[in-house]
Every structure is written in C-alpha cells, then in structure tokens.
C-alpha cells in the first residue's frame, strides 16, 4: 500500500503544469495574419524574421546563442521569446524562418505579376496619394541584350522611377551589363544560336548580337586564363614547399633563386579521338601532388581564316586583313595532330624554370610517347648539361598496354595450334 501511495503522489506531482506566461502561439499567428498594414510593421517584429536580419548587436547574438545552446529544447526557447516554433509555423502555413532571406541574384520574373504586385503594394513617394497606382513600363530603345530598361510611373503625378534589371560591370560607367556576360558564360557550349533559341522559348528578350557575344567570350577567356595561371602558380608553390620539407637534396641554387627538381607526367586530350583532331590540350602534372603545373593549347584551325579562305589571296584586301589577323590567329601548330603532345611538352619544359621555379628532371611517360626524345633534345640545345632529364615508365600504362596485347594475341590465336601441336 505504501508503494501505491508513492506512485499516486508521483503521478499527481508529474501531472502538474507550470504557469503560462506570454502570448500563446495561436494569438501570435492571428496578430500576424490579421495585420491590416504589414508593410508599416517593423520587420524585426515579424515571427521568424528576426532570425534572418542581422540587426542585433554582437552581445545580443552571443546571449541568444548561449541560451539556445544551454536550453535542452529549442522549441521551448522559441516559445518563451514569442516566436513561432517550426512545428507551429508549419501548422499555420508560414513555413520555417530559415526559408526567409533577402533576395539576391537574377530571377526569371513574369513582368505582369511584378507590375500587379508593385501596383498593389507600393505608394508613390512623390504624391503619396492612396488612389495612385505605380505601373511598370519598358523602354525598348534602351534595351541592351537581356538587360532591359524598366521604369515605374505614377498614375497621378506621372513621376518616373528607373528600375534597371542588371548592373554594369565596373560600376555605373561600365560598358557591359552583368546579365549579358553571365549569359555568354553559361551558353559557351551551345553558342549564340542556342542562347537565342532558349530566350525565344522562355519569352525573354533576345540576347546581344553575334559580335557583342564574341567580345564577351574573349573577355571570359582572358579571365579564365588569368585565373588558371594563378591556380597553377599556387600549385607550383605548394610543390616547391613539399620538396623543400621532404627532399631538401632536390633543391639547387640558380643565382639568387632556388629551383626544385620534381617528377612530372605529360598527358594530352584532343577534340576528337584519333590523330585527325584540329585542337589539342597538353598538361604537365606533378607526380607528387597530382596537380596541374602548366598546360599548352595547340590548334590547326582558325574560324576567321576559314571565313576568308574564299577570298583572293593575292588581292590587296586579303593581304591587309592577313597582316592585321596574324597576331591573333588561332593556328599555332604546324604539323600533324600526333606531334602536338611532343611540341607542347618542349614548350612547357623550356619555360619551367622561369615561370614555376621548378626543374622537371623526371619524365614519367606512357609507354608510346615520343615526347621524351623531343624534350631532351630541346633542353640540351637550350641549357646543355645543366638540365639533365631522365625517363620513367608509368606502371599503369605499361600494365594497360601489356594486357591489351595479351588479349589481342589470345583472340588472334583462337582455334590455332602451337608448334608443339597443343
């Protein structure tokens, strides 16, 4: 009987409720949804928005974070501060507070819906008449590609407020709009024609013209080359530090500079398989870190040269064009596509000391590459005995080629007997 009394007392004790202080979440939700003019309310007072807008002081944020950390139930903490919990917000259809953030970037927005929203929610800052409406207009003569010239006009006082859709690169006085540059970057794989079809299908304004599109691609290419060069220089610095710490004997003095001896492998990729590709890209990769240290692009094709190929090559007009075009011609290789790897390897190895402070003393080949002979001959002519290079075969390539030869030999000998009759 004593035990039963204890259980009853315990059950009564645990059944008691603590006193409630503050507003219940239903009352907070009703105040939020029934607000007659939510635009005039302080954003910090809206449920959940205070978690997004960083207007509190550092001390307040630290105290809030500490309370959240010390409180075993985050739901209780939100309720005690008069904020809807995640479960309560879901019940009233407000969603999570973490879904609310300041809008950034570019949006695909229906102009009619945007105009209706502005007309219903905004008031003219000049006349401030409750009956005035702000209408959204576009000035077609000022459109530049995907960057449109929009403006708001009050129906009462007719005051115009500009509403640009894209910033200019380089500030207000810049030449190109950011949206056009980004469109060229995103569409470089399917070209100007593909971008035009996409804009037509999405009911967007047409992109910039072909000439402007190509200018954007040229600037993007320059930026990509600059970024790639910085990445490869950082990779060379990391490799130098690795050699300095792990293999100090591989460091030599070259005047006032220190040069590290490293092992690299040379590999290339072509626009299409076989030895008929017009474009090839050759890379030099560190064996120790696996990072790309340098690259070279070789091309046998130029779009502008092809476009002027039908002109009279002896004519004065063609000669003037050729003289102006030669410094920027895309053709930088003479010979077969098979020779691109060897020629590029010579160029990369020859500039390694000047550009990377590295000496590629070990050449890891792929078993059938003729690049090593070309590189060794070129380095002997330029540096003499001061630049010694040795070759090592990649075990992976040797294994792959040996396996391929054995499988080919097995297929060729199928159904045949050896000399011993077996």
What descriptors fit this protein?
alpha+beta; Nucleotidyltransferase, domain 5; six-stranded mixed β-sheet; three-stranded antiparallel β-sheet; elongated; disordered N terminus; Mutator_transp_dom
Task: Give a description of the structure.
With 422 residues, the protein is α+β, with helices and mostly antiparallel strands. Among the domains are: 109-165; 181-246; 248-309 and 317-404, Nucleotidyltransferase, domain 5 (2-Layer Sandwich), CATH 3.30.420. It is built from 15 helices and nine strands. Strands 4, 5, 6, 7, 8 and 9 form a six-stranded mixed sheet that branches. A three-stranded antiparallel sheet has the order 1-2-3. Helix 7 (178-186) packs across helix 9 (210-246) and helix 12 runs parallel beside helix 14 (371-383). The model is unreliable at 1-21 and 35-81 (pLDDT under 50).
Topology of this structure?
Layout: H1 2-15, H2 25-33, H3 58-70, H4 74-80, H5 86-91, H6 111-121, E1 134-138, E2 149-154, E3 160-164, H7 178-186, H8 191-201, H9 210-246, E4 251-254, E5 257-270, E6 279-286, E7 292-299, H10 303-307, H11 316-325, H12 340-350, H13 352-356, E8 358-365, H14 371-383, E9 390-393, H15 395-412
Parallel strand pairs: 5-8, 8-9
Antiparallel strand pairs: 1-2, 2-3, 4-5, 5-6, 6-7
Helix pairs in contact: 7-9, 12-14
């Amino acid at each position: 009987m004593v035990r039963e009394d204890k259980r009853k007392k315990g059950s009564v004790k645990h059944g008691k409720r603590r006193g409630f202080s503050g507003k219940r979440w239903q009352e907070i939700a009703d105040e939020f949804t029934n607000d007659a003019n939510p635009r005039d309310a302080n954003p910090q007072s809206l449920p959940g928005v205070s978690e997004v807008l960083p207007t509190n002081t550092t001390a307040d944020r630290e105290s809030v974070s500490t309370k959240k950390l010390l409180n075993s139930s985050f739901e209780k903490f939100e309720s005690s501060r008069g904020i809807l919990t995640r479960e309560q917000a879901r019940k009233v259809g407000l969603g999570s507070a973490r879904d609310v953030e300041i809008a950034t970037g570019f949006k695909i927005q229906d102009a009619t819906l945007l105009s209706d929203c502005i007309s219903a929610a905004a008031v003219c800052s000049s006349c401030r008449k409750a009956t005035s409406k702000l209408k959204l207009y576009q000035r077609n003569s000022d459109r530049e590609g995907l960057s449109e010239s929009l403006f708001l006009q009050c129906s009462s006082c007719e005051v115009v407020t500009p509403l640009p859709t894209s910033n200019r690169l380089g500030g207000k006085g810049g030449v190109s709009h950011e949206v056009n540059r980004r469109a060229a970057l995103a569409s470089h794989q399917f070209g100007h024609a593909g971008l035009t079809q996409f804009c037509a299908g999405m009911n967007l304004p047409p992109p910039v013209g072909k000439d402007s599109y190509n200018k954007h691609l040229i600037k993007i290419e320059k930026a990509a080359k600059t970024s790639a060069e910085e990445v490869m220089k950082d990779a060379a610095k990391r490799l130098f530090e690795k050699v300095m710490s792990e293999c100090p004997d591989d460091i030599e003095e070259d005047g006032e500079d220190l040069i590290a001896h490293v092992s690299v492998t040379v590999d290339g990729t072509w626009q299409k398989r076989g030895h008929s590709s017009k474009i090839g890209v050759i890379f030099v990769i560190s064996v120790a870190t696996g990072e790309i240290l340098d690259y070279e692009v070789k091309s046998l094709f130029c779009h502008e040269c092809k476009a002027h190929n039908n002109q009279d090559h002896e004519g004065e007009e063609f000669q003037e064009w050729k003289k102006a075009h030669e410094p920027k011609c895309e053709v930088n290789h003479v010979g077969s596509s098979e020779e691109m790897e060897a020629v590029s390897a010579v160029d990369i190895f020859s500039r390694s000391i000047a550009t990377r402070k590295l000496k590629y003393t070990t050449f890891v080949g792929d078993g059938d590459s003729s690049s090593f002979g070309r590189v060794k001959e070129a380095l002997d002519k330029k540096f003499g005995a001061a630049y010694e290079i040795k070759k090592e075969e990649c075990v992976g390539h040797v294994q792959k080629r040996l396996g391929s030869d054995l499988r080919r030999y097995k297929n060729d000998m199928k159904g045949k007997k050896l000399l011993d009759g077996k």
